Amino acid sequence: MADEVNPDELEVADELIAERRAEKPGETPEDMTSWQRPITAAIDLINYRAGQIIALLMVPLIAVVVYEVFSRNSFAILSNAGFEDLAQSLGLGPTLWVYDTSRMIAGVLFMAAAGYGLMRGVHIRADFLYRSWSPKTQATVDAILYLLFFIPSMIFFTVVSAQFWWLAYSTGETMQIDSAWGPLLWPARTAMPVGGFLLLLQGIPEIFRAFHKMGKERERIFVRALPFYLVGLTWLVMAVFAPELVPGGEWFTEVMKARPAISKPTIGLIMLAAMLFVIFIGFPIAFTLIFLAFVFGIWGANFKLTTLLMTLNTNSTMLNDQLMAVPLFVLMGIVMEQAGLMERLFGSIQMIMARVRGALYIAVLVVSTIFAAATGIVGASVTILGIMAGATMSRSGYNVQLAAGTITAGGTLGILIPPSIMLIVMGPVLEVSVLDLFRAAFIPGALLASLYLIYTLGRCWLNPDLGPILSEKDQPVTSNRYGIEVVLISVGVLAVCRVFGWALNGVFAGVFPFAGLIATLAALGVAYLAYRNLSILRIVAPITIGGQMAISISALMGGSLSGVSTVVTVSWLILMTLAAYLILPIFRADAKEEFYFSDLWDEFFRGLMPPTILISFALGSILLGLATPAEAAAMGAFGSILLSIGYRKFSLSGFMDCLIKALEITVLIMFLVAASNFFGAEFSSLGTPKMLTDGLLALDLSPYMVLILIMVLVFLLGWPLEWVPIVLIVVPILLPTVVALDLPGFESTYDFLIWFGILVAVNLQTAWLSPPVALSAYFLKGVVPNWDLRDIYLGMMQFMLVQLFGLILLFTFPQLVLWLPKVMAGE
Q1: Can the peptide bond before residue 464 be classed as cis, meaning omega within 30 degrees of 0?
Q2: C-alpha pair distances (Å), 45 with each of 30, 110, 120, 608
Q3: Residue 202 binned pLDDT confidence (cut-offs 50, 70, 90)
Q4: Are residues 484 and 601 in contact, defined by beta-carbon separation less than 8 angstroms?
Q5: Distances (CA, A) of 238 to 226, 243, 292, 643, 654
Q6: Residue 184 pairs with which residues in a beta bridge?
Q7: Could you write out the DSSP letters of every residue in 329-369?
Q8: What is the pLDDT of residues 427-480, one digit of tens each?
Q9: What's 729's DSSP letter?
Q10: Average pLDDT over residues 320-341
Q11: Phi and psi, residue 508, nearest 5°
Q12: Is 174 helix (H, G, I), strand (E, B) or coil?
């Protein structure tokens, strides 16, 4: 089965859409039935142009959020410095309109572009069984399910959402519940019927493509049945929405009102079984959920309640301020990837670690950890890491299995490390703050990255042949005192970071206006002068080293930077400065010949610092509570564009391509969020989750054993399914049972859910390393073809065991997850 995946056909922009349609929009096979070709081409082009226009909405989305962040924080800075009147005269301050405008734009992005997503083939399907069928069988099943599932459900969706839009338009309904501005709702709701209609329209080319793929003999059978199908479909739609106009319509209405003989929870079980069956035969998951929610909702409740749940859940998904961060973080990662920042990161770190055994392992893990904070796109990370490191590792004699495991494991860190798209989606599912999930994931992400590093370096220490030191031609030219170069650079960076931390914590507040900013800029200036001038370095270096050591020792003794402890700190400063001056050999007369900063540090700072600073600001503003995830995402996307311009990698055509790719991934995730919310609401209204919860709790098992069984189920489902359906479908089904476990040792259910969410995230990351299903192996094989797939599998399994060890640590010690959120919340 594994060999059936063709790595050349995988799209590295996102692992979830590895089967993106290859042909150009409007391009049709020459042997397609003649009357079907122009219809297919015309509808494809309509949705293609619609997608291009809608993708451009990301630009005003970024603009309005960046304006809000700039205006609000500029006002706060000027006010704190005593210039409040100036800030008010400039019109600075928090806005009333940006919050509502931005989330309405974000909602329109995914909803109106749903048809474009189907045209490009990005709606996710679980092809675990589907891929093993012949093309004719695949096409036949697709045609049947499109005709029976997709077309009716999209007609219902379009008509009901049009009624929902008309209600808002005719009554002048405004956004009142969570809005201080109170804008009209109908402009944003227009995307629901328009998106539904474009999606319905795109179903026609998909059916024609299935006809073409199944062969002329089978196609004739379907074409002959089409008139009867259209008559039946027309009758069904009329019987639902205008029963008085068609024969048998009133009878059908009475049938829909009739209550079933079986219980509602049992109907929910049948609904669940039908969902699993249809998903595993390979039909796009979002459309499956919408159709089944309609059918079983009407069967178990009534049509009115079902349509109400559909419209309300779709509308709430469109206006969800936490999910607004999805397209922005995705765009940030894609722009950074296209600008080649990851390659530059890898090159600079590889050069710095060139004299260390296992240097390429270190470079891969450091770069993957940093890049994970920019994008959660596993396919892109694994592919680029493979391109950058694969050939060098082979040439340097690195062990293939360990190298493959390092690349694939490092690539999966983006699933967990904030700002993770999966955590953004999981927050509303668990009804917990995305901010708290980000804070909770920080230590587990660092823990797993550290475990990977310890494992690889430990293996190299036990067996040096696994990661030999790079050859002389691959090593950079440095001074004879390269170790001192590393120490001084590290001390300088640490000193600047410490001053910046003091500025954030208000240590300089009240000294004079903008003292924190000036102190940080001064520290940067002094560090740069010392880096460029050996004479200044001889003065600054011992004081800086002495200061760092003095402050650390004073802190360990219970001191601070004020009061009596200042005497202790100054005493330590003098002592440590003298010690550093005596120890460092750069103060000898022949230091110029023995010591200098090599050119590799220039490349290091150019490659590492700009993206790292950008990611740190975006992530740090979230963790410190200075910005919402959506605001940080907008600033990160804006910053990545500026970096792309600064690195001379920006072009309008390239940026448009980034917008399109970000739109495709956004449609994939967000449309499935809306569909799963609708399905979950119907499933819960039937009472099935309560029945399942009562059944599981009635078993003679401890709560911890039930939780372990749930984790095993999530792990096993992570093989055939991607994280999106698991988080959006499986987790909501299991959530009532999880909440009812009432495990001891947690202060609140909220803390327990934060811990559970991180366990699920780490679990799914582990499943990503589980051959033979995980696509990471195929991405890596595609770019390093001389590596055997068996060796890649064996390498992945090593790190899967390391990952399981990390999962056990998090399960055993929940405070590894909960400590940072509590500390940053001031508890």
Answers
A1: no
A2: 17, 18, 11, 42
A3: very high
A4: no
A5: 18, 6, 20, 55, 47
A6: 174
A7: HHHHHHHHHHTTHHHHHHHHHHHHTTTSTTHHHHHHHHHHH
A8: 988 989 888 998 999 899 999 999 999 999 999 888 888 888 867 776 777 777
A9: I
A10: 81
A11: -95, 0
A12: strand
Query: Are the C-beta atoms of 582 and 615 separated by less than 8 Å?
Result: no
Query: From CA 821, how far away is CA 442, in angstroms rounded?
Result: 9
Task: Find the DSSP H helices in 505-533.
Answer: 515-532
Q: Per-residue pLDDT for 726 more than 50? A: yes
Mean of all residue pLDDT scores within the chain? 82
Distance CA 768, CA 721 (A): 10
Region class of 141: left (phi > 0), else alpha (psi between -120 and 50), else beta: alpha
Q: What is the pLDDT of residue 17?
A: 47
Whether residue 772 has a cis bond before it, omega within 30° of 0 = yes
Strand partners, 174: 184
Residues 6 or more apart in contact with residue 344 via CB below 8 angstroms: 603, 606, 607, 647
Angle at CA 769, nearest 5°, toward 767 and 774?
80
Task: Report the C-alpha gap between 362 and 346 in whole angstroms.
Answer: 10
Q: What does the pLDDT read at residue 3?
A: 42
CA pair distance 201, 445, nearest whole angstrom: 43
What gap in Å lies between CA 740 and CA 697, rounded to an integer?
8
How far from the centroid of its chain's Cα atoms is residue 111's Cα? 19
Taking each helix axis from N to C end, the angle separating 776-783 and 378-395, rounded to the nearest 10 degrees, works out to 40
Structure tokens at 82: 């005593």
Read off the pTM.
Answer: 0.81
Spatial contact of 686 and 296, defined as CB atoms under 8 Å apart: yes
H or E element, residue 577: helix 565-583
Torsion from C-alpha of 347, 614, 414, 14, nearest 10 degrees: -90
* CB-based contact 697:736 (threshold 8 Å): no
